[in-house]
Amino acid sequence: GMVFSKQDSMMTIPGVELVFSGKTADGQAISFRDITKPDGSYSVNLLSGRTYQVAVNKDGKNIETQEFAVPISTNDSTTITKNIYANYIDLAMGDGGRFKKIYFDTDKYTLRPESIKTLNNTASVLKMNPGINISIEGHCDSRNTDEYNMVLGQNRADAAKNYLVKQGVADTRLTTVSYGERRPAAPNDTPENMQLNRRDEFRMVLKEGEPMPVIQETTTTIIAVPVTPARPQPGKSKVKLADGTKVKTKVDDDSDKVKVKTKGANGEKSKTKAKDGDLDSKAKDASGEKAKIKAKAE
User: Fold this and answer.
1) Thinking of the domain 3-88, which architecture would CATH place it in?
2) Residue range 186-218, pLDDT digits in tens
3) Is the pTM here over 0.85, yes or no?
4) What CATH number should be reported for the domain whose range is 93-205?
5) Which of 28, 33, 127, 298 has the fewest CB atoms within 10 Å, measured from its CB?
């Protein structure tokens, strides 16, 4: 079975200790133990025909104890799938490990314009954090067959991966998996809910025993243009800052107009004009989001 977070039924929990405690037919205490793998799965061999108390432990602390009744079986090879939903959420891996989901149109795996912006930001974060690898998970709503949706989910995961590779992320840092319609984010009972299920999710992949990395976020550099009475010297200049940001400055001959352009290492840009104390600035961050600022001199 698998262990999921009760607060987020899509989030599996690795490293959970499960202790199944019960009694034999003559009353002797027995117990079976396993620890969930990086994908949240576990497997134990139990005696049938009895009820077990399942202690759910994480990081040496008991989260809760659940009851699990195993039916009688005359076949030693009987397999029972028991998923456990624990009252626990891994805050370090919240929101799929800080990477935003992307969504798709019905029966499509073409990237939407807003998905391109999200993937640009994901690529920037990955390039700034070369020690992070991610798994791209493709999902579908419940329309069409399970087999068809498994292929469609894989195509959606591959579409995101191929785009990230084109943006300079190494292929070896990206893995893909399709869950088809098997892990819905919402019930498939309305068009809005089905849209939530047509998605890609991005999760950080850690090696066993490897600590959660601290993600360095992308930032936009803003260059302030002096609007004080001090008059800048006419001419042009080019400067490269320590973080890789390139800055171009142009001051008109009469010193009443200043233009500053910046271009960051991750594609972020800004353009600022100042004249007679008035300020007009435009900026675009690494994900493509734009911002404008205008200020009039008093």
Assistant:
1) Sandwich (2.60)
2) 899 999 999 999 999 998 876 544 555 555 554
3) no
4) 3.30.1330.60
5) 298
